[in-house]
Write a structure and sequence with these properties.
The protein is α/β, with parallel strands linked by helices. It has 8 helices and 14 strands.
């Protein structure tokens, strides 16, 4: 049903601007046969192509929604009813068109999407569960509220991507890139991040729990309200970076480095009693040149951490 509706809408918009199937196909770098299949409802374009179609045909993405009508169609149907109440209702719906809109192509789970170009798309609340996304390009996209569970996301590009409220769980993110990525309330759990690079990123209320963080790279990042609970950060270098309201509770921090870092209201305490092993782990952390508020300084000093080269702010 959905493919037929989308096909009809593509055909109608194409004919409205006097574009042949062959001309449309040429602009999309595909075959005319593919356009024909869409219009007959035999197949459906992917989300990237839907975005391109909207631009070529001069419509917005909501046009392809099953429930969406053009303003002219809506007006005609309302006037035909001859009801004043219907006219008033029409005005309300035009003022708030989102009431009749719904998202298309929300579920990409179980899909083979290796090296697919999603750059710049607006695709909130999508599902990419159990999918092959190896080398996919999500740069500059809006993926707010989307989920990535049990997928292969190696070498993916998330540079400049909006990942607010996204979930990354039990997947492989090796070699992925997060440069200037928007990370707000994003969750990373039980995932492989070997070689992943976070640079010039601001992490706000992010959770990186129960995850091996020994091999990703963090450069020039700021961490606010981030929870690293029960993650392995052994040998990780956070030199010169900013930490505010951050929890490292029960995290493995052997030989971690915070040289020249700024720490405000940062907790390194275990959830339960401070064991001798955990106490020894904290003493291996390098805080040379670090600047921290007095409470964080006191908490670390109280358990014997060497802060001889750190200062308070």
């Amino acid at each position: 049903m959905e493919s037929t509706i989308i096909g009809d809408k593509i055909a109608k918009a194409r004919k409205k601007i006097s574009l042949s199937q062959a001309q449309l196909a040429e602009q999309l770098f595909i075959s005319p046969q593919a356009v024909g299949k869409w219009e007959r409802g035999e197949s459906i374009p992917d989300i990237v192509t839907i975005n391109k179609l909207a631009k070529i045909l001069g419509v917005d993405l909501n046009y392809f929604s099953e429930n969406a009508q053009t303003a002219g169609e809506e007006t005609a149907s309302k006037i035909t009813s001859g009801s004043t109440d219907n006219t008033e209702q029409l005005a309300k719906e035009n003022a708030n068109p989102s009431r009749s809109e719904r998202q298309l192509l929300t579920n990409f789970s179980g899909s083979a999407l290796a090296e697919t170009d999603f750059s710049g798309v607006s695709a909130p609340n999508r599902k990419f569960n159990g999918s092959d996304l190896h080398g996919a390009n999500f740069s500059g996209a809006d993926l707010t509220g989307s989920s990535f569970l049990g997928s292969d996301v190696r070498d993916a590009n998330f540079n400049g991507t909006n990942l607010t409220d996204c979930t990354f769980s039990a997947l492989d993110l090796s070699g992925s890139s997060f440069k200037e990525t928007i990370l707000v309330r994003t969750t990373f759990s039980a995932s492989e991040l070997t070689g992943a690079k976070f640079s010039n990123a601001k992490l706000v209320d992010v959770k990186m729990t129960a995850t091996d963080l020994t091999k990703p790279i963090f450069e020039n990042c700021s961490f606010t309200g981030v929870d690293f609970k029960a993650s392995d950060l052994s040998g990780q270098r956070f030199d010169g970076q900013i930490f505010i309201d951050v929890k490292f509770d029960n995290a493995a921090l052997n030989e971690a480095s915070f040289k020249g870092a700024t720490l405000k209201n940062v907790s390194f305490r275990p959830t339960f009693a401070l064991t001798n092993r955990y106490y020894k782990t904290l003493k291996t952390i390098n805080f040379d040149g670090a600047m921290m508020d007095k409470l964080t300084y006191a908490a670390l000093k109280g358990i014997g951490v060497d802060l001889s080269k750190a200062t308070t702010i």
